[in-house]
Design brief:
Two copies of one chain form a homodimer. The first copy, chain A, is α+β, with helices and mostly antiparallel strands. Chain A has two domains: about 325 residues, Orthogonal Bundle (2-methylcitrate dehydratase PrpD); about 120 residues, 2-methylcitrate dehydratase PrpD (60s Ribosomal Protein L30, Chain: A, 2-Layer Sandwich), CATH 3.30.1330. Chain A has 23 helices and eight strands. In chain A, the strands form three sheets. In chain A, strands 6-5-7-8 form a four-stranded mixed beta sheet. A two-stranded antiparallel sheet of chain A has the order 1-2. In chain A, strands 3-4 form a two-stranded antiparallel sheet. In chain A, helix 2 runs antiparallel to helix 21 and helix 16 crosses helix 18. The interface between A and B is large, with 68 and 67 residues.
């Protein structure tokens, strides 16, 4: 059995009852997180443009565009919700099975699969269990295909979420449509000829577009395969197939026989972003929040804050004195200052007006970032971070975190996930719907229909539709995000 | 000025009056040919599935699906017409500027660009001149980008029409939408992150899908850029950009300063396929047709036909005794036999029943294909072919062709193009519309509106729509074309 058939066989034969309970529990968390970041992202300029684009094409208003009060045909809803899911770069990240893997090589697994499953699931009127099964299988396929790819793929310029998210989305949709192994093989063949997305587009709206396209492509590939559309039967492993063309090969030992053994969600795991900022700031952000609460610190007590990391961090977090919210996401002084002043680091904190706030600016001046010799010597596989707070009374407070909340070694509790979801979803949903959505995802496997969940996620029809209509007529700024 | 800006600048600044008349004349021929093969291809199973797919999504019925009597939103019409254009592998092929280029490296230039221009042009109500200008610029960009790419691109498994057709389509649509240079640069950035398509899918329906996707992607990229969607500003030449990621580089001397100098259509040129069969059979097909007419040969007079070529040909044309029309397209004995018996080699000849016809089978047995030492020594840059016909009366008739009709060295006349168009278009259009379409394309630059042309190309609404509805409910055969 070749690799492509292997993948199709795994998707075709796995039933809900074959999935370990632990995996279902993890999946609920990733789904809640994915829905939250997509709801927040639906307000981003790039998502707004896509929503207007989808409306311009028109078509059957059959499934929900999250948070907008709008509906669209299945592939277009997958597109728009996928773009929203990655718009803030706040969605989850798969870890690697090998320590020496290149940072960033792998995918943001949830967004493409979730967007495709949500749209298809609504149309096909599936139960919560079917939703979970399709999502879990899609993420498994996506993560294993990405884990096995030759790192040359990423190094030469491809964006893994873009190029491999579509396989996950395609298999998830194929599962919902109950495609047989033979049709799933063709689905992979079609999806591979849609795989695309370049890293040079990082820092622009085209990066989130990658995730949306992966979701849409997954739907399209499965739909065409269902109608008998033909494709190669060995697209992953073939000489002129996916791995060879797009990466110069793959490591078979990382995928052959490893689908669901264990599930990638269990080991090595998927990391949830606790803050809407550059991930290299997260351990230090986590630590400052804990220290501030533990010692009840206030800005006026603090003389200085020193943050020590390995040398990767100052290379990426390059703003000692940020001027905008976007810069603040890559600024250790801002992350420390806002943590002390607001004891939070959510969407509401990363705002232009906060960055310019006099208290924040004052405190940022007392924060420094340095390369810590000991942490540097421990390598780059984790973002180990040390904080030393010197108080005006001469006292010194210290701490060190090697990972942040949300990492599989330090998973977020359901309550913490709920807090992040509220922070995100409140941008577009009334509080009542936010709370209902959390409760519904908590018992997703018991839902006989997705309808109540989708109703809570749809967003206020009149309010949003009006806003959209208005914004559809203006042009967005062309500034490239850095 | 970087390469990406160079391309955008060329598209943005070139006006209709800057285009040499010779290029306009050539373009009319390629457009007529592209429309014809798309009309014929609209009856192919893969095109039918796409038409049903487009109908399933729904949306604004704003532009024409060629030959079907159906309408669809612009991007979806570009998709369906693009698939139809490449469905029979009967569309044109760009030549290379270097003799040593790998055969097949380059694109089928017309289909992706024409499908995008046709759909966008209908919606935007452009004149014939705008149509020609957009088409010519799109093809120029596509051909130059493809000509410059490192051949590793094709060798490693990418399909050039798929991966670079989108750039041509995007620039053509951008021209119609009057995007400025800055927006055209972003259009290229977005289009590059949609570029995709693997050769392992050759011989399946996914190959024509590549051309349709390229057309649709071009429309989508230009639409998003128009709305202010951001993207990298140097996607072609950047380190993590198109050429590096997808080919490991490019030959700058083949594109820098060469856009429109001369137009690629003029030099090295674009080849039109004279027959709906494997292109390696075309010189011999051409020759047998000429010999048969010149000497008024009949099957019963012929003892044997020997066809000599270089060793590439028997490697590709592998069916000495084909059983199906698809096999017959890769069979020298069939091409020779049908040429003698019917003195034609059009769509009507490559049919299953012809392949099984007793007269054809008898004559095929008298045809042999051999590697000719002299032709082999001349290299593989052309498909030089020799025919020796031994008559029963002992007489010997010989000839040699190095290229077939349709090659830039032996261009098809307008009358010949018209014959091919009739052969193709008659599958779906009434004779009256076929003739009108030829006349309208002949004076395309004079048309104040495309409406009359589109009316002739639309196809019988009732007849086709009914047929489609019927076929939409059945499943197509899953057999992979070889």
């Amino acid at each position: 059995m070749g690799l492509t058939q292997d993948v199709a066989n795994f998707v075709s034969k796995t039933r809900y009852r074959d999935i370990p309970t632990e995996v279902v529990c993890l999946a609920r968390g990733f789904i809640l997180d994915g829905l939250g970041v997509a709801l927040a992202g639906s307000t981003d300029d790039c998502a707004r443009i896509l929503q207007a684009h989808v409306r311009q094409i028109g078509g059957r208003e059959e499934v929900t565009l999250l948070g907008t009060g709008l509906s669209a045909p299945v592939p277009k809803a997958a597109l728009a919700n996928g773009v929203a899911g990655h718009a803030m770069d706040y969605d989850d990240t798969q870890l690697s099975t090998s320590k020496e893997a290149v940072y960033g090589l792998l995918t943001h697994p949830t967004t493409p699969v979730l967007a495709a499953v949500l749209a298809t699931g609504e149309k096909e009127k599936i139960r919560g269990k079917d939703f979970l099964l399709a999502y879990i299988l899609g993420v498994e396929v996506e993560c294993r295909i990405a884990d096995a790819i030759n790192p040359h793929h990423y190094q030469s310029g491809f964006h893994s979420t873009a190029t491999m998210g579509g396989f996950g989305a395609a298999m998830a949709v194929g599962k919902i449509l109950a495609l047989k192994e033979e049709a799933l093989i063709r689905t992979l063949g079609i999806a591979a000829s849609m795989a695309s997305g370049l890293r040079e587009n990082f820092g622009t709206m085209t990066k989130p577009l990658h995730a949306g396209r992966a979701a849409e492509n997954g739907v399209t590939a499965a739909w065409l395969a269902r109608e008998g559309f033909t494709a190669a039967l060995n697209i992953l492993e073939a000489r002129r197939g996916f791995y060879n063309a797009m990466a110069g090969g793959y490591d078979e030992s990382k995928i052959a026989g490893r689908l669901g053994r264990p599930y990638f969600m269990q080991e090595p795991g998927i990391s949830i972003k606790p803050y809407p900022s550059g991930s290299l700031s997260h351990p230090a952000q986590d630590l400052i929040l804990d220290l501030v609460k533990e010692h009840d610190l206030h800005a006026e007590d603090i003389e200085s804050i020193e943050v020590g990391t390995n040398s990767n961090v100052p290379n990426a977090l390059i703003y000692p004195m940020p001027k905008t919210a976007l810069e603040a996401k890559f600024s250790i002084p801002f992350c420390m200052a806002i943590g002390v002043l607001e004891r939070k680091a959510g969407i509401a904190q990363f705002k232009d007006r906060k960055v310019r706030d006099a208290k924040v600016v004052q405190l940022m001046k007392r924060v420094s970032l340095y390369v810590d010799g000991e942490l540097e010597s421990l390598g780059y596989d984790q973002v180990r971070s040390r904080i030393r707070i010197k108080l005006k009374n001469g006292k010194m407070i210290e701490g060190r975190y090697d990972v942040a909340r949300g990492h599989p070694e330090k998973p977020m509790s359901w309550a913490e996930l709920g807090e992040k979801f509220k922070d995100c979803a409140s941008l577009v949903l009334p509080r009542k719907h936010v709370d209902e959505a959390i409760q519904l995802v908590a018992r997703l496997e018991q839902l006989e229909t997705l309808r109540p969940l989708l109703r809570t996620l749809a967003g206020g029809k009149d309010r949003r539709a009006k806003r959209l209509k208005k914004s559809g007529s203006r042009k967005w700024s062309h500034t490239r995000k850095s």
